[in-house]
Design a protein that fits this description.
Strand content of chain A: 15-25%
Number of domains of chain A: 2
Strand order of the largest sheet of chain C: 14-20-15-16-17-18-19
Number of strands of chain A: 11
Number of strands of chain C: 27
Chains: A alpha/beta, B mainly alpha, C alpha/beta
CATH superfamily of the largest domain in chain C: FAD/NAD(P)-binding domain
Mean pLDDT of chain A: 92
Oligomer: heterotrimer
Helix content of chain A: 25-40%
CATH topology of the largest domain in chain C: FAD/NAD(P)-binding domain
Shape of chain C: globular
Distance between the termini of chain C: 19 Å
Number of helices of chain C: 15
Largest interface: B-C, 43 and 56 residues
Largest sheet of chain A: 9 strands, mixed
CATH architecture of the largest domain in chain C: 3-Layer(bba) Sandwich
Radius of gyration of chain C: 29 Å
Structural class of chain A: alpha/beta
Strand content of chain C: 25-35%
Order of helices and strands of chain A: EHEEEEEHEEHHEEHEHHHHHH
Distance between the termini of chain A: 47 Å
Radius of gyration of chain A: 21 Å
Low-confidence stretches of chain C: none
Mean pLDDT of chain C: 93
Largest sheet of chain C: 7 strands, mixed
Shape of chain A: globular
CATH class of the largest domain in chain C: Alpha Beta
Amino acid sequence: MVGKKITNGQIEGALNKLLSGGDCLVMGFEKDSAGIRHRVFKDSLGNMSITNHIFALNGGLYLRRLFSKGARIALVLRPCEIRSYVELVKLSQVEPENIIAVSVDCFGTISSKVDGVPVDPDADVLGKEPDRARFACANCRERRGVVGDAGVRLDVSGQYWVLPYTEKGGKFLSLIEGPEEDVTVKMAIPPSKSAAAFQTDMAEFAKDFSNCIMCMNCRDMCPVCYCVDCVFNGDEYLPKGDALFNKIFRSGSTDMPSGKELFHLIRMYHVSQTCVGCGACEEACPQGIPLTKYFKGISERLQGIFSYMSGRDPNEQIPMVTFLEDELKNAED
Amino acid sequence: MAGSLRMKYPEGVKLIQVPCSSRVDPAFVIKAIFEGADGVFVAGCHPGDCHFIKGNYFTRRKIAALKEELEAFGMKDKLRLFWVSAAEARRFVEKVTEMYNDIKEKKNGR
Amino acid sequence: MKTGIFICHCGHNIKHTVDVAGLSEYFRKYPQVTVSEDYPFLCSEPGQNMITDSIEKHGLDRVIVASCAPSLHGELFKDLLRKKDVNPFLLRRVSIREHCSWVGDDMEENTEKAKRLILSGLYGAAHFIPLEEKQVDVNKSALVLGGGVSGLSAALFLSKMDMQVYLVEETPELGGRVRELKSVWPSRKNGADIIAEMENELKARDNVAIFTSSKLTNFEGFFGNYQATIDTPNGEKKVMAGGVVVAIGFTPFDPDIKPELGYGRDPRIVTTLDLERMADALKLPDKPRVAVLHCIGSRDEQIGRPYCSRICCINALRAAERIKERYPDSYVESFYMDMRAHPRGGEEFFEDTQEKGVLFTRANIAEIIPEPEGVVLHGEDTLLDEVFERGFDLVVLSIGMSSPATSRDIASLLKISLDKDKFFLEAHIKLRPFDTAVKGIFIAGSCSGPKDVEESISHGRASALKLYGFLNLGYAFVDPFISIVDPKRCSGCRMCEQACVAKAIKFDEDKHVVHVEEAACMGCGLCNATCPSSAISLKGYVDTIIGDEISALLEAM
């Protein structure tokens, strides 16, 4: 593989070249004294930051139903965000034609709910203060900038590289000055270790979700929960009327709001193949429910049986829309 | 079919008609479990032998994934998938009776 | 919404294990139930009148009939609604016989179960909407698969009824297995003559196209408008057919499957079919000893053929009779399990054969060992409880019928079902014995289970008559249970489009939503289960119907 070594400001330079054309936007992060957050730039990059160690939301969320009619966009985001973008492309929620997706090596993030985190975009959270890292980051499946059209990667010597993965990525690379070189040096972030299969039970679930108020913020902030009208907007799946009261008669009592198990377990199934494990749901939860543990855990198990990984490759089909004739021999009981 | 041959199976087994096993939305299974079903079985035609050509291959994927999810929550024994065509009355009766008895045993054991 | 519940006693069938009167009483108290009645036979005329009178008197717009399986009397009850100008798809059938009274014995539990089943009908029906049956023109033409007696008789009948017939036969000749039979019992006519008669009549007709050495390779479309692709020696042919009669016959049991029979290892061990072929060429000593074995490849669980082939007892008797006629001094012994000479005159034929000196021994034959001086049968006499060894000059195996070798291919092309023995499955064993689950596709002859020549001919005609009945109307109603998209809810993710097996879902690039091509939709509901927001739903099986039925069976009440 070939790539280009970059120094400070070179990516910004390339992005500015795109902006100067007038028909291109850049989605990335902006830093000021108050913090660091997502921003879309049109005329100039301002105070753009390539990395962001504070996680508030998944930028993929804002790409849904974006059929950029003519306008081009360059995404410079975290690998989990680019992976959700890839899934949304598979789901026809984004038109990828005019989008260049650049994933940047991620060193872990701290929750935006934590107070007093200094604004230092280069902070190596997982390396220097792993205790403050979010659960999602500590258990991340892909922190490397290896997804999308191009990647920004750090090698072991501290040198940054831009690596192209697609034709579009190649075009992006050509905007950067300097010679193309063979990449022989080792990168700083190794592939993630695969985690043990997630295992829980209903008692633990009940405990963890006891404070759920069914505000559905988790759903609304999920980058891959793309339905324009969720089934849980209606009440067909939620126990109601005499069914609710019979549940009370059967079990002695019921928690309120009722139907949390249904909402979360069905949503877990719905996003199981597309969940990228970014933890945006947990970030959005006003009740502090450890959602990532469940959604990430379940999705990894459910993707595992089809040897699928969300967002890894735009050419991989989502497992639920295809099949192999010769598979899952043990599915029958 | 089992009924028209007057074969017996437990009264606790109740059936919901769908045109093809591929119509079974995993959400139905989850709903049934949380509305008090002790077990849910999904019966479909044998893979490769589908009236709707390939529907049951999708059923197999869906139900396998759902089983994995239920297993993670320690509820694996609540869902079973049977390949039983409409013609296999005896097999149907055997399978549902076996499942019914397994669940009953477990319930009484507790 | 006004709902009427009608609970059938089905004579004793339901009443004896379900408290029907208690149930109708129970449902009367439901606020959403206007009428709740029970009646001995709802399918009888007074029963039907009770339903129509109630519809008229109370203005019912939901009718729940709790009775036998919905596959029975389907149109009868729908017609009652039609008569009263109520959309027939506002009828909900609840099977409290096949799903309840016949499968359980406990009155209390059955009544409780029936209550739940009716309740689920009530809850489901609340979400029913009137559905429109689309009328389409049908082709007055038929595809007949198989040129044996059954297929020939079906083709002849249809042709005489002015239907264009396309007859497809895999082998170069028409006539199938009957052509090989020298004397067809009981008429003793030569099989080839029977075939020639039918073939000549058929070939003289100008609305019949016969394709021999040909094969069905593709099959698409729906009732009244099927498109079949046939691979013929003169290239590929595409024909339009309103319906199909499948009459692909059977495969004779191959005795090689049971090596202990020694078949193929000695010329003195032959099948009934071999005997027919040899006919006069058969050479035996002057006073030959001949054994005839029944039930070869029938009633045998071990080799997966537990059924009775129905023809082989008569064939065995015919073989014994023939030997006896040709060699009056022969010793002929017939080894049987049970004598099942069931066709008319069969029992008399059995007695005649006995009178002619054929010996009948109830036995299980364990092994047949060819020795130079004779073929030795090792077996057990099951009446005398004795083990025996006997030598013979000729052993005739009366072979049964196996399912046709191509039944699986044809089943998957036509999307029809097979039974456990790989014969084609009828829609109902008593009430719809010629129909398959697919409208306009009928089965005839021994491909739906062993049959003799006489039965196969009448079966062929009967299937043809049923198909004619459907096609002669000139139009058909298309099942309204197809998928529909709510464009306001569709996210345009195209998951359903990718999953749809029938390729009936199309994406609209401009509006970024999908729609369903009605004629192509098979109505399986895969799309509905694939769509996370159920923006695409299968009419008649929408989420709310199934969801509330689940609630009714479990929690609600």
